[in-house]
Design a protein that fits this description.
- 33% of the residues are buried.
- Strands 1-3-2 form a 3-stranded mixed sheet.
- By secondary structure, the protein is mainly alpha-helical.
- Helix 4 packs across helix 6 and helix 4 crosses helix 7.
- The chain contains 7 helices and 3 strands.
- It has one domain.
Length: 224
């Protein structure tokens, strides 16, 4: 079990690198407008959704920085103002990526179905996992530790399911951008860097969650 601590620092470094990479790549390509067609992120996403028969999926502007996401329950694409209203390659790439999630939902792609099923449990786990673990450690109550660990595992599975979901959305985004001729093959290189950097942030998040899980299992002295 001692080797668990050897994974903590690499996990933290990966998370820091992934965040830095995402922000630096986004800043770089947010300065370059799409020369093929002057489309904002919102207009590009609308064209992609309409072409897939998803005209009923709303596109909304939301506050925050890089808060872009697809809400499958509301069937709405929510884009941060910087993505929604600008015509940069970064904005178009991120908008296309989120539109890719809507296409996954339409195709009943299995990871998004599993993620939806886990969502209620994940919300509960996000609220209760750390308090239960902290209470178990402070009060020395093993059932609290076991329950907290189980809740934490739900969060880890949720993040694990997110990995194929995000990589597939990026793959779909690249294909759609070329098919719809929203960007040229040269411009797709910049868009691809943004999508790849975004995917690595999910890998880093899962790595941190996995390392934290190993630490809790060590506290419980469970075999791994």
């Amino acid at each position: 079990m001692r080797y668990v601590f050897l994974l903590v620092i690499p996990g933290l470094l990966l998370a820091i690198w992934a965040q830095w990479r995402m922000l630096s790549v986004y800043r770089r390509w947010s300065q370059q407008a799409c020369a093929t067609r002057r489309l904002t992120g919102a207009v590009a996403a609308r064209e992609i959704l309409d072409a897939a028969g998803l005209s009923t999926v709303a596109i909304e502007s939301t506050s925050g920085y890089l808060t872009d996401h697809y809400d499958p329950r509301a069937r709405a694409l929510r884009l941060s103002a910087e993505v929604h209203d600008t015509d940069s390659l970064a904005a178009i790439g991120i908008a296309a990526h989120e539109a890719g999630h809507a296409l996954q939902h339409q195709d009943l792609y299995w990871p998004i179905q599993v993620r939806l099923a886990l969502l209620p449990f994940t919300r509960a786990a996000a609220w209760l996992a750390l308090p239960m673990l902290a209470a178990g450690l402070a009060l020395r109550v093993p059932p609290f530790l076991i329950l907290g660990t189980a809740l934490f595992m739900v969060l880890m599975v949720f993040q694990l399911i997110s990995l194929p979901l995000e990589f597939d959305a990026s793959r779909r985004a690249g294909r759609i951008l070329i098919e719809r001729r929203l960007v040229s093959s040269t411009e797709l290189d910049g868009v691809g860097q943004v999508l790849q950097a975004a995917a690595w942030t999910y890998v880093a998040s899962f790595t941190l969650c996995f390392v934290q899980m190993l630490r809790w299992l060590r506290f419980l002295r469970l075999p791994i």
